[in-house]
Design goal:
alpha/beta; Rossmann fold; 2 domains; 6-stranded parallel sheet; 15 helices; about 40% helix; about 15% strand; globular; transferase; Glycosyltransferase family 1 protein
Amino acid sequence: MADFIITSIQSWDIEIGSTIKNTAFEISKQHRVLYVNPPMDIATRVRIATGKGPLTTISRRQIEVIQGKSPIRYIKENLWVLDSPFTIHSVGQLPTWLFNSLNRKNGKKIGNWIMLQAENLGFKDYVHLIDTDLFRSLHLKEYIHPKISIYYRRDYIIGVDYWRKYGPACEQALVRQADIVMTNSSYFTEELKPLNPNIYTTNTGVNLSLYDGNILHDIPADLKDIPSPRIGYTGAIIERRLDADLLYAVAQQLPQYNFVFVGPEDDFFAQHPLHTLKNTYFTGHREVAELPAYIQHFDVCLNPQKVNPITEGNYPLKIDEYLAIGKPVVATSTHTMREVFAEYTHLATDVDSYLYAIQKALGETEDAELKNARIAFAQTHSWAHSVEKIYKAIDIYKTTSKK
């Protein structure tokens, strides 16, 4: 049975839904998986120690392991999560020569740690899946010696300020050295194909057992006093992805509708005038298991993205979640929305088209045929289907590499 080692930009302990965690769960149904959490960097440790940075769930776990707590967690059959009992250098904004030197040292330190733990678990001939981990995973291929190396781009993180200095060059190197490249949108595939022709598009899956349109949920307590129509959004509420000014204008012009935002906010949104409107509501963070109940009791679901390099090719997992519950959806028209979801959603580009689309979507709330069509479409995007594409890419590689 093949083993998988996953190194990700994202911690296992993230408080919102995660594509890579769902992928790891699905792979673990057939293969053993070691999910390697990002180690804490020195700058983060110093900020926490001096009171200049928050102690989050993620950083608390990292510090506990550094102080002696067991670094490996058994999650379920075939699935372990590995933390690191050390810190690594903070490299993102260093001069080039120092970045190259210290990032390689980080890679060697992490690689040796992975090798030790993989050997303890009896992992052999493993597949290394790199989940958009641009810096820490750059040199791991030479240190952990995987049988097959896969680079997986599921987000355009090089559009984020922190990654702009070295991210593009690191990602290009990762793509070139990978045996297989996977992306979750055809937009990303076309962009990276010139660097590595052995590239495949997975799209993304949805947890169909959790997001099940046939299950009836009680209305969440904080929705009970919010009258319909409820126009809702679930997920991280952050400036670089969501268009706050568009939302403000739309909510102002539809005072008879209530707009509900379920998820953690960044500082920009927390201070935005959206909070001053009488028909906008922010619930704060909710556990992933709670989200289907919110979605079910929305009349229309939203994904009001900005259009920028970060969102244009991104695969919005929440759209599958909305559709799996059978809800009418209004979303910003991005490449992936047009290519994958146009037939089952209402796409908009500005305030006027959002106003029109929301009102049109509200007219579909009682249409059982449309609801069933949305659910049936979402069910074609299971995690099993998504991961099967990874397996097929591996089979193709094994076959062609023998020739």
